[in-house]
Amino acid sequence: LKGEYDHFLLKEIFEQPAAVSRAMGEGGRLLHDFGTAKLGGLNLDKRDFFDIERIHVLAMGTGYYAGCVGGAMIEHLARIPVQVFDASEYRVSNPIVKRDTLYLAISQSGETADTILAVKEVQNKGGRVLGIVNVVGSTLARLTEGGVYTHAGPEKSVASTKAFTSQVTVMALLALLLGRMRDVPVRRGKELVDAMMALPDRIHETLGLRDRIKEIAEKYKGYGSMLFMGRGNYYPIALEGALKLKEISYIHAEGFSSGGLKHGPLALISPDMPSLFIAMDGDFLDKDIGNIQEVRAREGKVIVLTDSDDPRLEDLASDIIKIPATDEVLAPILAVVPLQLFAYYVSLALGREIDQPRNLAKSVTVE
Ligand code: F6R
């Protein structure tokens, strides 16, 4: 039931503090004193983790972007190389399956044919696959050797929101666990545990920006196309923001790496082509500001999404969305929330179907 909400999508966006909390087992998947995570369903002897040389993630769509964000978290904390694959491509690539590779399949429904077939290809070659799945007892949950349920609760809207943030949260738990088995010291582990425990409150605060985002969405609803830009672990967030917008508003949207701007997309910039830049505090903020200047110099409107107080951003932005700060490892989970709200309010202003976009099905059970 939608209850007080007009659409399931909005309800599910607002359920994210609770969903992310459930993905952390309401805290039960975190061991504060040891600064690590505990994942019961992996069905792996911890000793097997020492032998993992690389991780391959298999998923489609929004799950693929969750894999990109979470994979970078694993690389950052555990220094294990992670590659993320479009499962439909992986399956046709005659993949090299190896004993020291851990395979992770990410799926909300657990019924996505492309992902299931990629998993079967790996399993037929002797690979061990774990699932990060939302629907309990689904095909993928049964097919995989073990895994972690995201426990986001039922997701009814075709466009995925709370499943995404829950998938990334589970990947963060895995990154913490693997990181603490390797180089991450207990003190940094505890810091991350604290930041994870506080994440539902930070998401709640971010949701408080809804009215501001609605105003911005109404200003941008009339454009035929829009670009989304991000750097580092905000690049897959930019791609996810673009996917959300095209999926429910039918406005053409594309995501690019901020660094890639000069390598082609800059040619698209004009007063008719707005962009949304994710420009978060950190080592590369100056680079982001440089990119935004290039777009503004060509009269492109820019919505800036940031957690920084840098006054240059206020000056440059056509519109600015300021989100709360959190640990930099977890910040992408917060950054996606305004993009979900933006897509929702643009679509609302355009009178779209929102929960049931044309041509799309909630789970894609055919190839
Ligand atoms: C986008 C969306 C899709 C799914 C994709 C995989 O909002 O929902 O891109 O993420 O079809 O679905 P699952 O996660 O069920 O395997």
From TrEMBL:
EC number annotated for this UniProt entry: 2.6.1.16
Catalytic activity: D-fructose 6-phosphate + L-glutamine = D-glucosamine 6-phosphate + L-glutamate
Every SIS domain range: 45-185, 216-357
Recorded GO CC terms: cytosol
Keyword Cytoplasm belongs to the record: yes
GO biological process, one term: amino sugar biosynthetic process
Key words, A-Z: Aminotransferase, Cytoplasm, Glutamine amidotransferase, Repeat, Transferase
One function term, GO molecular function aspect: carbohydrate derivative binding
UniProt-annotated catalytic positions: K362
Keyword Glycosyltransferase: no
Subcellular location per the Swiss-Prot or TrEMBL entry: Cytoplasm
Subunit structure: Homodimer.
Function, in words: Catalyzes the first step in hexosamine metabolism, converting fructose-6P into glucosamine-6P using glutamine as a nitrogen source.
Name of the protein in question: Glutamine--fructose-6-phosphate aminotransferase [isomerizing]
Organism: Salinispira pacifica
The gene coding this protein: glmS
Residues of the full protein shown: 246 to 612 of 612
